Fold this sequence. Notes:
Layout: H1 6-17, E1 23-27, H2 38-49, E2 53-56, H3 80-90
Parallel strand pairs: 1-2
Amino acid sequence: NSCYQPACLTQYTRPVANVVPVIFGEYGEHYNDSCDSTNTSAFINWADQNHVNYEAWTWDIWGTCSDLITNFDGTVKNSAYARWVHDHYLGLP
């Protein structure tokens, strides 16, 4: 979990991903409940460029910054993190 910057991922994760499938499970912005998208966009864009899969955290309505929705009908939470994840996933082929 401490290796989320592109340089670190290139050094440690890419060699593994070149041999076996890799997935970033339950990723989010920070452990301190940040609602930003700076780190998420950096490592998910890296993942796309390096054929690494991922799953965003969390499809829930707990009332934290890691929530992607505000209602189980799929209403996107109004946070930079949730909007970035939503828009990024919509833009995937």
